[in-house]
Amino acid sequence: MTPATRTEIQHFAKQIADYVTFKCDGESEGFEIIHNGYIAFVNYEAEYRAVRGGDSYCGMWEMVPELVSEQTTVEAVWDEEGNEYPELADALQVLLN
Length: 97
Fold this sequence. Notes:
three-stranded antiparallel β-sheet; 2 helices
């Protein structure tokens, strides 16, 4: 397999970011993304805290979750033959955070 170009890496990172935005829905999870023969294992973590918010009902406020932090970590990248590409994982990590 030939090394990924800068444009391919950017598209790969966008595919990962889109998955986090549209599929994770603020829930921590690990997932795999396949792009042009490469497979990335990604770990998304979201941390919340409870804050007073919402509507007051009978003088009582409900506690609602507030996002405190989130992190996306590219754990590893492989090709279809099982060869690992740590440089590609590092490049994706830089683009995602």
